Amino acid sequence: GNSVTQMEGPVTLSEEAFLTINCTYTATGYPSLFWYVQYPGEGLQLLLKATKADDKGSNKGFEATYRKETTSFHLEKGSVQVSDSAVYFCALSDGAGAQKLVFGQGTRLTINP
Amino acid sequence: EADIYQTPRYLVIGTGKKITLECSQTMGHDKMYWYQQDPGMELHLIHYSYGVNSTEKGDLSSESTVSRIRTEHFPLTLESARPSHTSQYLCASRPSGTRTYNEQFFGPGTRLTVL
Prior knowledge:
- The complex is a heterodimer of chains A (113) and B (115).
- The N and C termini of chain A lie far apart (41 Å).
- In chain A, the strands form three sheets. In chain A, strands 2, 5, 6, 10, 11 and 12 form a six-stranded mixed beta sheet that branches. A four-stranded antiparallel beta sheet of chain A has the order 3-9-8-7, with no helix packed on it. In chain A, strands 1-4 form a two-stranded antiparallel ribbon.
- Chain A has no helices and twelve strands.
- In chain A, strand 10 and strand 11 form a beta hairpin.
- Chain A is 0% helix and 50% strand.
- Chain B has 115 residues and is mostly beta strands.
- Chain B is built from no helices and eleven strands.
- In chain B, the strands form two sheets. In chain B, strands 2, 4, 5, 6, 9, 10 and 11 form a seven-stranded mixed beta sheet that branches. A four-stranded antiparallel beta sheet of chain B has the order 1-3-8-7, with no helix packed on it.
- Chain B starts with a strand and ends with a strand.
- The model of chain B has no long low-confidence stretch (mean pLDDT 91).
């Protein structure tokens, strides 16, 4: 079945550091890929998405490229801020039936000033 | 801007009580979902609905039940709450259609504590 694997957390960085959160997936067909972010005490918000191979999703300085050859969708940001502290979830949607999302286990990111 | 609401945001109750967690969306979405989020952050799909009068069990077995009498409303009920039900419950909805790139929109969640 479909699955998503994220890098183990938690991740702690200093402000203005470079961020990478790894995400790999296993899926049949041609899934869409997503990164969601969850700030403390809130629900999930879509951060970015990509719908086909080599697509790059971007938002708020974050980027991720859909790599079919390596089945990866790593999240990157060049210079993180304290306000980026949150939990990040990688997910895929295979489009079948109810279009369920398959989530990775989440990565907690803490940015220190 | 997504409009999906959950009430209550926080609930502390005693064992054996019956509770209903409310979820409403004003976007006219057909598909709706309930997730349980454990303290380790992982999200588990416990129920979903294709539309009115449709409800399905999710990937994680749950003692809760759901109903979908109106498009905009997807409440979750626990007949007899237990401490093992303590968790964060997230509701989500999705636009109609089969496009995989359509995102799910999430509510703010209900944090349930059963004593």
